[in-house]
Amino acid sequence: MPTLFEKIISRDIPxxxxxxxxxxxxxxxxxxxxxxxxxxxxRKPLVNVAEAGPEDAELLGRVMLAAAExxxxxxxxxxGYRLVLNNGEGAGQSVFHLHCHVLGGRGLRWPPG
Length: 113
Ligand code: AMP
Description:
- By secondary structure, the protein is of the alpha+beta class.
- The protein has a single domain (4-104), classed as HIT-like (HIT family, subunit A, 2-Layer Sandwich), CATH 3.30.428.10.
- Helices cover 20% and strands 22% of the residues.
- It has 2 helices and 5 strands.
- It has helices at 4-9, 57-73; strands at residues 17-20, 24-28, 36-42, 81-84, 100-104.
- A 5-stranded antiparallel β-sheet has the order 1-2-3-5-4, with helices on one face.
- A hairpin with a 7-residue loop joins strand 2 and strand 3.
- Bound molecules: adenosine monophosphate.
- The site of adenosine monophosphate has 13 residues, from loops.
């Protein structure tokens, strides 16, 4: 069964898409935790980083590069932003299709808690 994010990528479910390329689609999180909260999702439905293999090395790099491009487009590159990949249920992963959260536009504490 396709994941929710596959349905967004195929345009079966609407989303506010802010960036896309050959590798990824990026759209605004429906429940934003910061003024800028975008999810960068690879077109390939990889579950998470733990499930990635050496064949996914370029894909993982493309997700990071796309996240940096999203941050530039969203105007948070200079002020700073956070990239988060929740890996597994215990870490808060709720959609099992790898995605990188791009969070910015407010102060972000460390450690995240
Ligand atoms: P995670 O908890 O790391 O798996 O992140 C999943 C994220 O997907 C959450 O931040 C949700 O708010 C977000 N989300 C769930 N459904 C949608 C949707 N239809 N469109 C955009 N974001 C969504």
